[in-house]
Amino acid sequence: MIEVELRGWGPDDVGVVIGAFESPDMADQAARPIDTPRAALEWMGTWGFRDDAHAFAVVSGGQVVGNVAVSNIDAHDTGWVSYWTVPHARGRGVAVAAVTKLARWAFAERGLFRLELGHRMNNPASCAVATRAGFPAEGVERAKLKYGDVRHDVERHARLATD
């Protein structure tokens, strides 16, 4: 498996964040466009001030190549995992390594018991990441996500601390 480092986001990462959200498949993944340094700093900042979430910049080969996060941590010790990589880092196992490392951190450091994630049914690459990172599929949630005027079915995956 490829080696990755997880670290906090910082001001020097603005260009990576803007570049990532310029990718057509990422453009609608944020609540509002991430297309200016201010918007990128605000996106990074929202992760730093929440008790129910933590995001990490994913570093491989000395470069920031993605994001991995756990959010919506609830009273049942469950969190929601999300991840993305920049286009040139895809297909190399970066996301799998990052999600695997995040899961170990979330179970050991945050004391979580269950991690969940979901992907649109038309995103087989994200499904492969989830499965390879030890998150078996649990079922389909119909019309769960809405991007623009389109609703998408989502396949939910989960991993337990005891897996």
UniProtKB/TrEMBL annotation:
Q: Which PROSITE patterns match?
A: GNAT (PS51186)
A single Pfam family it belongs to is Acetyltransf_3
EC assignment: 2.3.-.-
Please tell me whether the keyword Transferase is annotated for this protein. Answer: yes
Q: Does the keyword Metal-binding apply?
A: no
EC class name: transferase
Please name the InterPro entries in this protein's record: Acyl_CoA_acyltransferase, GNAT_dom, Ribosomal_N-acetyltransferase
Give every N-acetyltransferase domain span.
Answer: 4-161
Entry protein name: GNAT family N-acetyltransferase
Write down the species. Streptosporangium algeriense
